[in-house]
Amino acid sequence: GQGLLPTPRDWGEDSVTGQLGLYLLFTLRLLQGLCAGGEISAVSTYIAEVAAPRSMGRCVALIAISGNMGFLLARVAIWSSQWVFNEDEMLH
Fold first, then answer.
1. What is the pTM of this model?
2. Which of 21, 1, 3, 2 is nearest to 11 (CA)?
3. pLDDT tens digits for 38-86?
């Protein structure tokens, strides 16, 4: 849904619809961040409860590694998009 929000670029800088889109984007991204933070803590607690004592360190480390790999892959996707498309193509 975030990509479908109205923007001031499309609706005009003084448009109420464009401004509403910005506020909705901010609110949705805030909610997304809160949910991701809650999910990571819930998974960590679950792993700590069910993992065998001899492999608990590996299991908890895997949570951190997989989270960082997600950020790395997202960055690679951004770099690839910037390499393939120019600024005009990215905005339209």
1. 0.60
2. 21
3. 888 888 888 889 989 899 889 889 888 988 999 999 999 999 999 999 8
